[in-house]
Amino acid sequence: MPADTFGAAYARFMRSSYFSPDDRPAVGFIDTDELAYVAMRAHEVHDFWHTLLGLPTNLIGETALKVIELRQMHLPMCLLSVIEGTARFSEKQTKLFYQHYFHWAVPAGMQCTDLICVYYEQHFHEGLEDVCTKLKIVPAPAVS
Question: Which key words tag this protein in UniProt (predicted)?
């Protein structure tokens, strides 16, 4: 797969993070098969979102992704994750998050397509930038 494709970027992300899609825990405590599928799919696509949005898997990156998820799905657990994540920030992390990530994540989560409804696997062969453009995704700001 060419290096500039979404699939290659996803593979690099997974390798560099030492993640495997098979390592995700099973979804539990869901009443219906339909809701269980939605919850399972939300777990599955989480790493696709990291790849497309350019977010790291550290506390700041995960919290920023929860802001996107909150804007997308309006789930209380996302809000609780944002509150918990920001409560754990150091002073330096708080400044970085609010100066760079929070003000990007709120509008980014509102303007992109409904990300939970995308069949990402059908886009692996497409260019990463092309997929972002198609889904109206604005990648996270580059912060050094």
Answer: Ubiquinone biosynthesis
Which residues, 6 or more positions from 86, have their beta carbon under 8 angstroms from its beta carbon?
63, 94, 97
Could you tell me which residues come within 8 angstroms of residue 80 by beta carbon, excluding any fewer than 6 positions away? none
Q: What is the pLDDT along the chain (144 residues), one digit of tens a residue?
A: 899 999 999 999 999 999 888 887 888 888 899 988 888 898 889 999 999 999 999 999 999 999 999 999 999 999 999 999 999 999 999 999 999 999 999 999 999 999 999 999 999 999 999 999 999 999 999 886
List the chain domain ranges: 6-134
* Model pTM score: 0.91
CB 54 within 8 A of CB 139: yes
Task: Determine the Cα–Cα distance for residues 74 and 71; give it in Å rounded to an integer.
Answer: 6
Residues 62/135, Cβ–Cβ less than 8 Å = no
Closest CA to 144 of 86, 90, 100: 100
